[in-house]
Hints:
The structure holds two protein chains of two kinds. Chain A is mainly alpha-helical. Chain A has one domain. Helix content of chain A is 74%, strand content 1%. Chain A has 15 helices and two strands. Chain A has helices spanning 11-26, 31-56, 64-82, 86-109, 114-135, 137-140, 159-182, 184-194, 196-201, 206-232, 242-256, 263-278, 284-298, 300-316, 320-324, and strands at 146-147, 234-235. A two-stranded antiparallel ribbon of chain A has the order 1-2. Residues 316-334 of chain A have low confidence and may be disordered. Helix content of chain B is 77%, strand content 2%. Chain B is built from eleven helices and two strands. In chain B, a hairpin with a 2-residue loop joins strand 1 (129-131) and strand 2. Chain B starts with a helix and ends in a 10-residue tail after the last helix. At the A-B interface, helix 4, helix 5, helix 11 and helix 13 of A face helix 4, helix 9 and helix 11 of B.
Amino acid sequence: xxxxxxxxxxxxxxxxxxxxxxxxxxxxxxxxxxxxxxxxxxxxxxxxxxxxxxxxxxxxxxxxxxxxxxxxxxxxxxxxxxxxxxxxxxxxxxxxxxxxxxxxxxxxxxxxxxxxxxxxxxxxxxxxxxxxxxxxxxxxxxxxxxxxxxxxxxxxxxxxxxxxxxxxxxxxxxxxxxxxxxxxxxxxxxxxxxxxxxxxxxxxxxxxxxxxxxxxxxxxxxxxxxxxxxxxxxxxxxxxxxxxxxxxxxxxxxxxxxxxxxxxxxxxxxxxxxxxxxxxxxxxxxxxxxxxxxxxxxxxxxxxxxxxxxxxxxxxxxxxxxxxxxxxxxxxxx
Amino acid sequence: xxxxxxxxxxxxxxxxxxxxxxxxxxxxxxxxxxxxxxxxxxxxxxxxxxxxxxxxxxxxxxxxxxxxxxxxxxxxxxxxxxxxxxxxxxxxxxxxxxxxxxxxxxxxxxxxxxxxxxxxxxxxxxxxxxxxxxxxxxxxxxxxxxxxxxxxxxxxxxxxxxxxxxxxxxxxxxxxxxxxxxxxxxxxxxxxxxxxxxxxxxxxxxxxxxxxxxxxxxxxxxxxxxxxxxxxxxxxxxxxxxxxxxxxxxxxxxxxxxxxxxxxxxxxxxxxxxxxxxxxxxxxxx
Lengths: 334, 286
């Protein structure tokens, strides 16, 4: 098995990076489409993070928006209150999200039924975060939200600048993801996503690896949320709500394929288009995503099988030895 | 003040218990944690509000609305839940969580789209009562009475009735129950409908004590999930006790500090319970 040393596994990331880098030119710099594309990058990065947490270690985090919001609010509030540069506060936001994520992971993996408890606790955190932001009115201005322009990150206020910063973040996340999955840690992820008990018997510290995935994924969620905050120029609790973020990311990942490198990119691209199509439906778009979740999950197995076949064919030119070594049957991940 | 906060808390707690007991029963029998549970309460609440707007007498509207929630429960059980029950173990758990979360969004989307302005708030044309030196709204007293009668009836049913014993038997061991000639799939349907009827009842009692609108579902679901977690997801009595305790916590924190603290305390309590007493407050009692 070729691990490390080879750059060929990263070829798909280079292709994706080049394609995404050219997209602003394709749309001719139109502000409307550029905004759409920037949001697409944000959702792709969030989905990469969720893929790490759910796709690889089967922890159903239902607080993606809240964790992204934690990163955003911690960074913005620290910047505003202490006059620090966002360059310093964004890592602080990431750390805050990572700690929260790891905590939920810790609480649930220590006991059996982890899957269900993590779902319950994180869903509760979604509502807690929203109410906390509303409650700490002095710091967050509640529902009114905070204006984030002019806080010392001018590159995020330039529309091309923001696009390429977020693209860089996404590419870094994808590279980090691929490196992680190909490392010893990735082997542990693969073992424990097949079966917790078997992995533990084989000497994998299941709790530690689950917490690691949760912390890294949450840090990425926090970073993305914070970057988005400075790009958007405004944050409010509804931007990070369950219906605005979690449902969309869940559908993107279920559609794109769990535990795959390009699943989040494909799902993100497809559902950015879908999101635009359902926007005029108003509150009905929640219904569309709910129905999609049910349908995608019912028909997930045939869909993933089809995607894996396509993926194998494209990947075959990249690294046949890895495939021969059996890059984990993806259908079995969940 | 303290007495009236405790009474308010108990009344809210009784409703949380009703909601969470449904969750516990459904989970105990089917291994599915219903993330759409609060939405069934909202369905009943909105149905009652619509019926009352059409000049149906309040008691009849309430009964019809609860039945509507139960009917929706029956449909969901026969379609989505059936798909979940075909799987086993962790697969079923995950499938159930994602399915019911999707269902929750579907119901919320439909209600928000079709009846965005509808909310249930029932006025009780009775004078306030005097209990322990504090005035209690008659609506609250009625809610407390309904909830207590329902919970006691439920406990007696599970303890004494043959059907109730069969249900507890499946909760203890599905295989053991099958060996005794009990058909778990039929009981699952009965319990799912019963659980959604209880949720529907909470929709009505929420309309009596406060109000319920199309956006109330998620919060009800989350509170019920936390109560079920703290009480122990397989313990019915524990769930009832946890509901009362958290109801009192809710009324004190909301009054003295702010609603947001309730969420934090609930969340911390749930996490602490999972860490310290993963089987819940009362362990394995049924």
